[in-house]
Design goal:
heterotrimer; A mainly alpha; B mainly alpha; C mainly alpha; A: mainly alpha; B: mainly alpha; 4% strand; binds protoporphyrin IX containing FE; binds iron/sulfur cluster
């Protein structure tokens, strides 16, 4: 995957835009910079239009006959439905403040990856078709006509945006190019121009409840493996429940947590923590996915996939919900779920059964972030922790885009990390918290065929990790996002190979002193807790 | 979620501010300036003529005075030669106010109309008439 | 090219009133009809644009959070960058509108060998933007002296503060210099920074040049080529009293100034300058991040197809039973 990509070539970045105007520069589908189109079967499964087999490199994309009307009507509908879209189309002054804030521009130099120009790709069509000034003045006012090449350009660049919202932090009007990308992708969806890396998980999730298409019996098997590993490493036997009616709490996390390394270690952390607390909770096989690739498709798809969480909470009769470590999942839960599928009046405002703390900030949505839950436990001294068990790790923390810029959940994970390990180092200010850099593979870009774009887009993040690696010897990158755990792993292997990726609750798992545990000589990955003696001493 | 209430309030405030001059002028008499030359000294002049032409004085009296000040204070010069070759002492009080002894009816007519606030009076004494009237 | 075109447009716009006044004697057209029309277009256009935006709802609450959320009571919330209530939002908006808070964060990214990425703070854009907007506002307010009789005390105060250097006759206003310098900077930056130049349109150069033209004619009138200020005020007062009359001999420079301003006003509602209204309506800034506390209502929320639990169990019932997962229907 990354073999063919030479770092020396990647870092030769030319930020100087070409002479030719961007409107006259057609898009070039080059291997490593675009995602394979969605298979017809996935579109069909989700009742999406124009299912067919095609490739972006084809001359003919097999668009529907009336594709132009579809796009223009689709734009009109969305302009009428979303004030954000309309206002953002109108008020950009092209000051360029956002230009060098996007990781894809920083890592690649393609001018159309400047957020402002990404937005102009659609704004130019808006001006040409929906504003008087644009219709009269045409190109002078930045307007252009809608052609098939425009659709190709949209497909290319709206799938080179990870909807990370970093640009929005710096824009004086808060213009959120992620929102514009979402509109662009919705419009492309109307023509059946989707990517498989998004729609296959979405279709799987629709059917089986999770992205990976794991069926209920297989899901249980996977957990057995995790539970065996936990017993092997801690001596504690855990027996979680699934689809249990009458539990107090429903727990929902992204499926990557119980399926893929290194997410599984974080998942083991949840299992151990809840067991140690004796929490009355259940997993669900139907709502077995916290993630929501609808966010990368359309608002309607968000709602269709998200509906399962409240439906399952209602069916099982739980009182409230805890959500695991994930980024885009929390964008959906925090900013969309209650509005789309609420009100959750069948649930109760969340109260921690262990500490009695009322989670006031979640009283309507009734879903609490796991780091809010755990930070409260630690603050109230409900956990016995031995941070020295993480001593071989020198840790830094990556704020995932959505928790940082769509929630502002910044201190909770840091509080936990500082309590479960002794060596914590922040990355530089311009690369952390609300200014954090994307992993380069969010919003459905985290697939192998996108490797060049991912490694480029991830470079600013990797560079900051490199900095703390060089300065403080950091060897672990903590994050609370399932996509990150996968994409950052590849990114680190490529740019900073000495650094491995970890979830917050993996660190908790290591430090948590459990009742009836055996002497812990290995960490939750089964690796020795302490560096082998001798290596350092000689 | 439209927030119409807030938006309409905002619009009313905006339109109110933009049209403020219109509201502000309602009911106020729009008196145009009418500088008066009716002073004892001017009334006695046969040819009513300032030190330079009327148009020049309207356009440039402020600069002229500024030059006078600098000439007197910095260069110790006190005599001004006009374009017609006449000599005048460069003095606000002795030359200008000698004829224009009516600041209120003369200077202030225009100054207050267009809101000019010359800082002459930070140093100079106002013309005698004004002092007598209690200014 | 684009730049040149914008320049030519502004030149032509300056020539029109000059010719009109000087050779066609159209002082009534340029002194009365044009300004009235411009103000009418401005107000109606502005209201029209805002109403058009307002007609689209805000279906979801999508603030961009730029600081710590409100969560557990012992975690300090960043109330201005991540407000959870009205007062915080008002504070955040005030910072944005009055001090361009977001622009203040601006950084400049540089790629050095290594590779090392460096993010220097880059305050010039912010400084120029602030200098430009505030000068513009203060100059606008100062003009009230031509629009009011008697002139309110506050305007006097503003003039005195603005002219406190007491340089020259008539007193030099600091904002006059700042405005021209800032616009010049913004303009040069547009040409000099390759990326910004690449994204710039005629409609980006035009307002800057237009405003520069307005500032320049204003400064020329005030400091160099005197116009008949009394006449100007008579004209203005006549206009606002709705008894328009054009005094003679105002000077053609004034009519150029007036015509450029009228152009700006009339152009405003149909251009990017509407950011003035739009900034207040931006959903990533004007909403509180109380998403999980208060349910946001989407007026067009509609039912969608979902895959129900019943359908799910129907497909997987046997497999579920085989591993002992509870089912609804046996
Ligand atoms: C609430 C009122 C306003 C706010 C908050 C605001 C804010 C801003 C900000 C943050 C920028 C970006 C920085 C820059 O490029 O300078 C900007 C640009 C600009 N603003 Fe405003 N503005 C307001 C009103 C106005 C008005 C009334 C005008 C003109 C008559 C105006 C003219 C401009 C122009 C021409 C630019 C572009 C500068 C460039 O091209 O570099 N603004 N504004
Ligand atoms: S920062 Fe905002 S206003 Fe400036 S160019 Fe980018 S999107 Fe446009
Ligand atoms: S949302 Fe992120 S990826 Fe998309 S344009 Fe903005 S900074 Fe770039």
């Amino acid at each position: 995957m990354t073999d063919e990509l030479k770092q020396d070539d990647l870092v030769k970045i030319n930020y100087k835009p070409p002479k030719k105007d961007w409107m006259d520069t057609p898009v070039n589908f080059r291997h490593g910079t675009y995602i394979y189109p969605a298979r017809a079967k996935n579109l069909k499964y989700l009742d999406l239009p124009n299912p067919r087999e095609w490739s972006p490199t084809d001359e003919d994309w097999k668009l529907p006959e009336n594709w132009k009307d579809i796009i223009l009507n689709g734009m009109k509908e969305r302009l009428d439905k979303y004030r954000s879209f309309k206002v953002f189309m109108d008020i950009c002054v092209r000051c360029g403040a956002c230009a060098d804030k996007c990781h894809f521009f920083i890592g690649g130099g393609d001018p159309k990856n400047m957020p402002v120009l990404r937005a102009e790709l659609i704004r130019s069509i808006y001006k040409g078709n929906f504003t008087a000034a644009g219709k009269i003045l045409g190109r002078l006012n930045g307007a252009r006509g809608l052609t098939k090449d425009v659709i190709k350009e949209w497909f290319y660049y709206f799938y080179q945006c990870t909807e990370c919202r970093r640009c929005s932090v710096f824009c004086p009007y808060g213009i959120d190019t992620a929102e514009i990308t979402m509109m662009g992708r919705e419009l492309l969806t109307l023509l059946g121009c989707n990517v498989n890396w998004v729609l296959e998980p979405a279709a799987n999730c629709y059917r089986t409840g999770n992205h990976l298409g794991i069926q209920p019996h297989a899901l249980k098997d996977m957990f057995e493996m995790l539970l065996d590993d936990i017993e092997d490493r801690t001596g504690v036997k855990i027996e979680p429940t699934f689809n249990r009616k009458g539990a107090e709490i429903l727990f929902v996390t992204p499926s990557a947590d119980y399926f893929a390394d290194p997410g599984i270690y974080t998942c083991m952390g949840y299992l151990m923590l809840f067991h140690e607390l004796g929490l009355d909770y259940t997993w669900s096989t139907y709502a077995s996915e916290g993630g929501n690739f609808g966010l990368f498709t359309s608002h309607e798809m968000i709602k269709r996939l998200n509906a399962k969480i409240y439906a399952e909470a209602k069916r099982l009769g739980v009182k409230w919900i805890i959500g695991g470590e994930c980024g885009h999942m929390w964008r959906v839960i925090h900013q969309y779920m209650d509005t789309m599928n609420g009100p959750a009046d069948f649930l109760e405002a969340p109260v921690s059964p262990i500490t009695g703390t009322k989670f006031e900030n979640a009283k309507s949505t009734k879903m609490v972030h796991i780091t809010e839950f755990t930070a409260d436990l630690i603050k109230n001294n409900k956990l016995k922790l031995d941070p020295s068990r993480n001593d071989k790790l020198r840790i830094t923390f990556h704020d995932s885009c959505n928790p940082a810029r769509a929630m502002g959940i910044l201190e909770e994970p840091r509080y936990i990390i500082k309590n479960v390990c002794n060596n914590f180092f922040e990355m530089p200010e311009n690369t952390a918290r609300e200014q954090t850099f994307c992993c380069g593979g969010g919003a459905g870009l985290g697939t192998d065929e996108m490797m060049e774009i991912r490694m480029r887009g991830g470079m600013p993040r990797a560079n900051a990790v490199q900095y703390v690696h060089d300065k403080h010897g950091v060897n672990r990158l903590t994050c609370m996002c399932a996509i990150d755990r996968a994409t950052l792993t590849t990114l680190m292997e490529y740019w900073v190979p000495d650094v491995k990726v970890t979830g917050v609750h993996e660190l908790v798992a290591n430090a948590l002193v459990m009742k009836g545990e055996k002497e812990r000589i290995v960490d939750i990955r089964g690796e020795p807790l302490k560096e082998k003696k001798g290596e350092d001493d000689v | 979620m439209y927030n119409s209430g807030k938006i309409i309030t905002g619009l009313i405030i905006f339109v109110g501010l933009v049209t403020l001059p219109f509201w502000y002028s309602i009911g106020k008499a729009n008196i145009k300036p009418d500088p008066s030359l009716n002073t004892p000294v001017i009334n006695q002049m046969k040819v009513k003529h300032c030190i330079e032409s009327k148009q020049f004085m309207i356009d440039n009296h402020m600069e002229l005075l500024n030059e006078w000040r600098n000439a007197v204070v910095r260069d110790n010069k006190t005599i001004y030669v006009s374009t017609t070759g006449q000599y005048f002492t460069m003095s606000l009080e002795d030359t200008c106010f000698h004829c224009h002894s009516n600041e209120k009816q003369f200077c202030n007519q225009c100054h207050s109309y267009v809101n000019i606030q010359p800082y002459c009076w930070e140093c100079h004494v106002k013309p005698a008439e004004e002092i007598a009237n209690g200014h | 090219m684009k730049l040149l075109l914008a320049f030519v447009i502004v030149l032509v716009l300056s020539a029109v009133p000059y010719i009109g006044i000087k050779y066609a004697g159209m002082s009534y057209e340029f002194g009365v009809i044009v300004p009235y029309a411009a103000v009418a277009v401005f107000i109606l256009g502005f209201v029209y644009r805002i109403v058009k935006w307002a007609k689209s709802p805000v279906p979801f609450r999508i603030p961009t959070t730029c600081g710590q959320e409100k969560s557990l009571p012992w975690i300090k919330q960043n109330k201005l960058d991540n407000p959870s209530g009205t007062s915080g939002v008002v504070g955040r908006m005030a910072l944005e509108v009055l001090f361009f808070r977001s622009l203040f964060r601006n950084t400049k990214t540089e790629l050095k060998d290594g590779p090392k990425l460096a993010y220097g703070s880059s305050g010039w854009l912010w400084l120029a933007a602030i200098a430009f907007h505030w000068s513009f506002l203060i100059i606008l307010i100062r003009h009230f002296r031509l629009f009011s009789q008697p002139v309110p005390y506050l305007i006097n105060l503003l003039e005195n503060v603005d002219g406190f250097l007491q340089i020259g006759i008539p007193t030099l206003y600091i904002t006059d210099i700042l405005l021209l310098a800032a616009v010049l900077y913004l303009f040069i930056r547009r040409i000099a920074i390759p990326q910004v130049r690449y994204i710039s349109l005629v409609s980006d150069y035009f307002p800057l040049l237009l405003i520069f033209g307005i500032g320049l004619t204003g400064v020329l009138m005030r400091y160099f080529y005197r116009v008949n200020v009394i006449g100007v005020k008579e004209l203005v007062m006549g206009l606002i009293a709705l008894k328009p009359a054009v005094p003679a001999d105002i000077g053609s420079l004034f009519f150029i100034h007036l015509f450029l301003i009228s152009t700006l006003f009339a152009y405003f509602p149909f251009s990017k300058l509407m950011h003035m209204g739009g900034v207040f309506l931006s959903p990533t800034r004007n909403l509180a991040n109380n998403n999980r506390m208060v349910r946001h209502i989407n007026p067009w929320n509609y039912p969608v197809h979902v895959h129900t639990y019943a359908e799910y169990e129907d497909e997987f019932r046997d497999k579920m039973k085989s591993v002992g997962l509870p089912v609804e229907k046996e």
